[in-house]
Design a protein that fits this description.
- Keywords: Hydrolase, Metal-binding, Zinc.
- Pfam families: Lactamase_B.
- InterPro entries: MBL_Glyoxalase_II, Metallo-B-lactamas, RibonucZ/Hydroxyglut_hydro.
- This protein has a single domain, classed as Ribonuclease Z/Hydroxyacylglutathione hydrolase-like (Metallo-beta-lactamase, Chain A), CATH 3.60.15.10.
- It is α/β, with parallel strands linked by helices and 212 residues long.
- Strands 1-2-3-4-5-6 form a six-stranded mixed β-sheet, with helices on one face. It has a five-stranded mixed β-sheet with strand order 7-8-9-10-13. A two-stranded antiparallel sheet has the order 11-12.
């Protein structure tokens, strides 16, 4: 049994997820902003944070990485294709928006590749789902039938592909091969907005109709 909590944070309301298991262990996914709030929410639960997992490294998903990492002394995981992005505002996009702070984090502690990942009592599958960015990944928790997919797929929409490294056809292929193949009952948790299911997106998402 897993419990997932959603926190829309920062000026773009990026979803940060805290996932707890029955042992009280916690994974932090995409701490994009408001690091002190994330820390306070974890400490209220008396949970044990084990790691920070990043679906990708655009600035709105990584702004509080070092604040949370250093407070709890936990490792950060990111796909190997974006390992240089955490500390580079030109790559993570924070330099594109005047008035927003430049995001510079220390290097990740672990690099993700496709396949099974075990952290504490958590077991999950890493699926590489590029298209929105080169190193976008989705975290698939099979037993709980939930997937955290970053900015790959939204309810009724898909991630933008006009940023560096984005590609529309690659994104659509990632969605069809890696997300719509999940059981229809899976709950998909995106980087922004409400959750959805593969069944709902196959039926209703206009961006996916007719793709082959």
């Amino acid at each position: 049994m897993l419990e997932i909590r959603t926190y829309p944070l920062g000026p773009i309301q990026t979803n940060c997820y805290l996932i707890f298991n029955r042992d009280g262990e916690c994974l932090v996914i995409d701490p994009g902003e408001e690091g002190d709030r994330i820390i306070a929410e974890i400490e209220k639960t008396n949970g044990e944070p084990l790691a920070i997992l990043l679906t990708h490294s655009h600035f709105d998903h990584i702004g509080a990485v070092d604040r949370v990492r250093n407070h709890f002394d936990i490792p950060v995981y990111i796909h190997e294709a974006e390992q240089a992005w955490l500390g580079n505002p030109d790559l993570n996009g924070s330099s594109r928006y005047p008035g927003l702070p430049l995001v510079r984090n220390e290097a990740a502690d672990q690099l993700l590749q496709e396949g099974e990942l075990k952290i504490g009592s958590f077991r999950l599958e890493i699926r590489h789902t590029p298209g929105h960015s080169p190193g976008s990944v989705s975290f698939i928790f099979h037993e709980a039938q939930l997937a955290v997919v970053g900015d790959t797929l939204f309810r009724g929409s898909i991630g933008r592909t006009d940023l560096p490294g984005g590609d529309t056809r690659t994104l659509l292929q990632s969605i069809h091969d890696n997300l719509l193949t999940l059981d229809d009952e899976f709950i998909i948790y995106p980087g922004h907005g409400p959750s959805t299911t593969p069944e709902e997106e196959k039926d209703m998402n206009p961006f996916l109709n007719g793709f082959s």
